[in-house]
C-alpha cells in the first residue's frame, strides 16, 4: 500500500469523524429543544396552578364556583378507566404479539395483518371514538359508561402494545430458542421460560408509552359521551355484602381529568383557568407515577435475569 493510499484513507476517516461529530451536535441540540420546551411548559403550568392544589381540591366535586370546584370525580374516573384499559389492552396486546411473532405462519395473510396493525397505531383517536360509539354504545348497549371508555382506549393503544411486543420478541437471539429446543423444551416452554423474561423490559417500555397516550386522550371520550360535570362517584368495587365484589361501577357514568380540564379551559373566568392548570399538574403526576411503577418493575425483572 502506497503512501498516497494511506493519506486518502486517513482523509476519509477524518471526514467521517467530522460528519459523526456534526451529527452528534445536531442530535444533542434537537433533544435539548424538546427537553427545554417540555420543562418550560411544566414550569408555566406549575406557576399557574400549584397554589390551587390542596386537599379540598382533591376531595371536592366540580362546581359552578371556581373556588369550590375540585377534581374528586375526575381523578377517580381516570383511575377506573385506566384500570379497565390496562386490564384489556395489556393481556390482549402481549398475547397477539406472541402469536404473530412466534406462532403465525409467514405468508401473505400474516403480512397483511402486520401492515394493518402497524397502520392502526397511527389512526387518529377520534376514529376510535366513532367506532366505539357505534359498537359499544349503540351496538352492545353498554351506554356512556366506564367500561365503554376503557374499551375505547384499549382499542386505541392495542396496536402500540402489539408492535412493541413483536419488536421485543424479534430482538431476542435465535440461539436462545435453539438452546431451549435442544434441552427438550416445548414451544410454549421456550417462550414462557426463556424468550419472555428477556423481552419483558422492552415490552414494558411499549406499555408505558401506550398508557401515557391513553391517560391524556380526550377526543374519543367526548365522542362516546363522557360527562363534563358529574357530582357523584360510581358504586365501589368492594362492598360489605356477599360476594363482596361489585361490577356495577363498570356501567356507571364517568368523567376523567382531560375532560374536566377541557370544560374549565372553555370557560372565560380566569379562576377556572387556574383550576385547569392544577388539574394538569395532577394528570402529569399520575402519568409519571404510572411510568415510575412500570420502570421499577422493568428494573427488578432485568436485575432478576442478571442474577
TrEMBL record:
Q: How does it sit in the membrane?
A: Multi-pass membrane protein
Tell me which domain of life the UniProt entry assigns to the organism this sequence originates from: Bacteria
Question: Where is the ABC transmembrane type-1 domain positioned along the sequence?
Answer: 75-294
Family annotation (InterPro entries) = MetI-like, MetI-like_sf, Phosphate_PstA
Please name the PROSITE patterns in this protein's record: ABC_TM1
Q: Where in the cell is it found?
A: Cell membrane
Q: Does the keyword Cell membrane apply?
A: yes
- Just give the chief location class: membrane
Q: Which Pfam families does UniProt cross-reference here? A: BPD_transp_1
Membrane spanning residue stretches: 21-43, 72-100, 120-140, 146-169, 190-212, 218-235, 242-262, 274-297
Q: Quick check: keyword Nucleotide-binding in the entry?
A: no
Question: What does the UniProt keyword field contain?
Answer: Cell membrane, Membrane, Transmembrane, Transmembrane helix, Transport
Entry's family note:
Belongs to the binding-protein-dependent transport system permease family. CysTW subfamily.
Which protein are we looking at?
Phosphate transport system permease protein PstA
Q: Which organism is it from?
A: Anabaena subtropica FACHB-260
Amino acid at each position: 500500500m502506497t503512501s498516497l493510499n494511506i493519506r486518502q484513507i486517513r482523509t476519509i476517516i477524518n471526514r467521517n469523524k467530522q460528519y459523526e461529530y456534526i451529527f452528534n451536535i445536531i442530535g444533542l441540540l434537537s433533544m435539548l429543544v424538546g427537553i427545554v420546551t417540555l420543562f418550560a411548559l411544566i414550569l408555566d403550568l406549575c406557576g399557574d396552578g400549584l397554589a390551587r392544589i390542596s386537599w379540598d381540591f382533591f376531595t371536592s366535586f366540580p362546581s359552578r364556583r371556581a373556588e369550590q370546584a375540585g377534581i374528586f370525580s375526575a381523578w377517580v374516573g381516570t383511575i377506573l378507566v385506566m384500570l379497565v384499559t390496562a386490564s384489556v389492552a395489556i393481556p390482549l396486546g402481549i398475547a397477539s404479539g406472541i402469536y404473530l411473532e412466534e406462532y403465525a405462519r409467514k405468508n401473505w395473510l400474516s403480512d397483511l395483518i402486520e401492515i394493518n396493525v402497524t397502520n392502526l397505531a397511527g389512526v387518529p383517536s377520534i376514529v376510535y371514538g366513532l367506532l366505539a360509539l357505534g359498537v359499544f354504545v349503540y351496538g352492545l348497549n353498554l351506554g356512556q359508561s366506564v367500561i365503554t371508555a376503557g374499551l375505547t382506549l384499549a382499542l386505541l393503544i392495542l396496536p402500540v402494545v402489539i408492535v412493541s411486543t413483536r419488536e421485543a420478541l424479534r430482538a431476542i437471539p435465535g440461539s436462545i430458542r435453539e438452546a431451549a429446543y435442544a434441552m427438550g423444551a416445548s414451544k410454549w416452554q421456550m417462550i414462557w421460560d426463556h424468550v419472555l423474561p428477556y423481552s419483558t423490559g422492552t415490552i414494558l417500555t411499549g406499555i408505558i408509552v401506550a398508557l401515557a397516550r391513553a391517560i391524556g386522550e380526550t377526543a374519543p371520550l367526548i365522542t362516546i359521551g363522557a360527562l363534563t360535570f358529574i357530582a357523584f362517584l360510581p358504586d365501589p368495587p368492594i362492598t360489605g355484602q356477599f360476594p363482596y365484589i361489585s361490577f356495577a361501577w363498570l356501567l356507571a357514568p364517568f368523567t376523567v381529568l382531560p375532560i374536566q380540564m377541557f370544560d374549565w379551559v372553555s370557560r372565560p373566568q380566569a379562576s377556572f383557568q387556574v383550576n385547569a392548570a392544577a388539574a394538569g399538574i395532577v394528570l402529569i403526576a399520575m402519568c409519571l407515577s404510572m411510568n415510575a411503577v412500570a420502570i421499577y418493575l422493568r428494573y427488578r425483572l432485568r436485575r432478576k435475569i442478571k442474577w
